[in-house]
Known about the structure:
mainly alpha
Amino acid sequence: PHVCFILTCRTKSPLLDTIISRATCYYLGGGENTADYDETVYNQAVELLNVYAVSDEYEFLKKTAVFVKNKNLFRQTLKAMLPIVRDALILKSGGKDISDSNRQLAEKFCNTFTLKKIINLSEQLQILSDQAENSANHNLLITRFCSVLYSIKTGN
């Protein structure tokens, strides 16, 4: 009961899914942040956040349907959403140093949401991402994802 294993690696991709599902993962920074997702996942995250920022909940729900049969895509998309929302948070807080690839969407979030909502969104995405990594029930997690994001957007 008093044993703790600490595994270090640049990315989680070489680790078995059974290890990742039982681990708590932390990005410690330093060096280049090599993302555990590819361009397709990044594009999925951008599309989902675009729909979230400008469309109604029905369009958002339609975009999340792809996750029902693809647990890994959902997990990776959550991780890909985090830096985009964090860039929006930096911009909304008066910072300027953000990724050029995220700038347009981050500006859209700044114009659409209050600082409090962007902070809440960032926190909730991190919680959902952690839960997805720790093998929470996949279908319930997708439902919670939709519910939490809708609540943030509407202020309920």
